[in-house]
Design a protein that fits this description.
Elements: H1 3-8, E1 16-19, E2 23-27, E3 37-41, H2 53-74, E4 78-82, E5 98-103, H3 122-133
Antiparallel strand pairs: 1-2, 2-3, 3-5, 4-5
The structure holds adenosine monophosphate.
Adenosine monophosphate is lined by residues 3, 14, 28-30, 84, 90-93.
């Protein structure tokens, strides 16, 4: 049983902000900014890669509503959605979840992307490979 299943089962406490039949949302215990929330599907899956489409879609739907609430309640001037899928992507809790992180001007909460470059033709070749793999 993961820590998130224990929260869903009320075996351990959490600062819950939303719950319905399919998802629960609560504040991250170690927030990147105060108000940083998690949206967690109740149906168990490891991450986005094995979650069923409806579960994933509902998680995204509720993340949008949580994001709007962070703007209204906290005056956030931006919001990041982050989902770590797999240990190499930084996933620590093996239960699918979407981070909804309120942002404020110059808060320094995230590093920026690395902004690598492609060689000539490399991006198109890669796009072709990925296009063929989309199921
Ligand atoms: P990830 O690295 O995407 O797996 O993120 C897992 C997140 O869960 C981290 O940001 C943790 O701070 C958070 N977390 C772990 N335990 C708890 C807990 N008991 N209540 C709330 N958030 C938690």
């Amino acid at each position: 049983m993961t820590i998130f299943e224990k929260i869903i089962a009320r075996e351990i406490p959490a600062s819950i902000i939303y719950e319905d039949e399919q998802v629960i949302s609560f504040l991250d215990i170690k927030p990147n900014n105060k108000g940083h929330a998690l949206v967690v599907p109740k149906k168990v899956s490891l991450n986005a890669l094995d979650a069923d489409e409806e579960t994933f879609a509902h998680m995204a739907r509720m993340a949008q509503r949580v994001a709007r609430a962070l703007v209204t309640a906290l005056g956030a001037t931006g919001v990041n959605f982050v989902m770590n899928n797999g240990e190499d992507a930084g996933q620590e809790v093996p239960h699918a979840h979407l981070h909804v992180i309120p942002r404020f001007k110059d808060d320094g909460a995230f590093p920026t992307f690395r902004k690598l470059s492609y060689e000539d033709g490399e991006a198109d070749a890669l796009a072709e490979e990925i296009k063929r793999a989309i199921a």
